[in-house]
Amino acid sequence: MKFITAIIKPEKLDSVREALFAAEITRITVSTVSGHGQQEPEEEVYRGVKVVPNLSPKIRIDIACNDEFVDITCNAIMEGAKSGPGEVGDGKIFIRNLEECIRIRTGERGGKAI
């Protein structure tokens, strides 16, 4: 079992979600997060003063899946999150081992609980 975390641009959430659903990956958790990567922060005007924010708004998607779905899941995320050639800031995907998963309602464990 693996735990996949993707950090993407907020405006790409719908296209990533649609790509995941098309790949039959329907169980996802989405959170709003802030972070700083390689992209240069855009200058904003706040109350008439130019401000350069330290952190950019991003979306975090968490997906627990069985090993055979890792490539399918990652490919769907990449398909939906890509902006275009040369653009920085499309995001990252992190894959970690998932030691255990337990479905609270039934007590099922492991891959069946996912």
Automatic annotation (TrEMBL):
Pfam families membership: P-II
UniProt xrefs under InterPro entries: N-reg_PII, N-reg_PII-like_a/b, N-reg_PII/ATP_PRibTrfase_C
Coiled-coil regions listed in the entry: none
GO biological process per UniProt: regulation of nitrogen utilization
Any GO CC annotation of this UniProt entry: cytosol
GO molecular function, one term: enzyme regulator activity
UniProt-recorded name of the protein: P-II family nitrogen regulator
Organism of derivation: Caldithrix abyssi
